[in-house]
Amino acid sequence: MKALLLIDIQNDFLPGGRLAVPEGDAIIPLVNALQPRFDLVVATQDWHPAGHQSFASSHAGRRPFEQIDLHGLPQVLWPDHCTQASAGAELAAALHPERIEAIFRKGTNPEIDSYSAFFDNGHRKSTGLADYLRGRGVTQVYVAGLAGDYCVYYSALDALAAGFATTVIEDATRAISGEGFDLAKADLQARGAQLRPGAEVPGR
Q1: Tens digits of per-residue pLDDT, 66-83?
Q2: Is 8 marked active-site?
Q3: What's the pLDDT tens digit per position in 27-70?
Q4: Given 3.30.1660.10, 3.90.580.10, 3.80.10.10, 3.40.50.850, which CATH number is that of 2-50+83-200?
Q5: Where are the domains of the chain?
Q6: For this structure, is 151 an active site residue?
């Protein structure tokens, strides 16, 4: 059984959002078209409390995209984004919700960021997604969403580590940095992940 993971397709990551991913909205028609090909569709949401320590505004004198050490982990400082219950944290209005069986929220601990759909950045706390997928009989995971060089990448890494056959749907994701996404894709392939365009995703 295969599952489609829709990573952080939220308003703040779309053009005009607080942390816009270039052309982030361009993936939505493809993602909508792909959903019926899967037995299971799951979405994630960044869901940060106000004052999250990954926000540059939480650190006096710091600017977005600077890097600091946060409790022993390297941390990029981001603009405030996807604050709990804000309009920016909502899933994109154009995203079809009918087949999304569950939504997993991440980044809820104010002291640690969480790029992956499976764990926080220190692997200190699980979201429960791996157990959920196993409980539904999933063996193959296809990953799409935003952003390719951060949350999609780390979600795919953890899917591999959890034992799922993992594919990133290249044209159903967009990245903050094209160079960063190229490096992410090369690393994922070296670890056994596949990269496919949406047109090559098989049906149910």
Answers
A1: 999 898 989 899 999 999
A2: yes
A3: 999 999 999 999 999 999 999 999 998 999 999 999 999 999 89
A4: 3.40.50.850
A5: 2-50+83-200
A6: yes
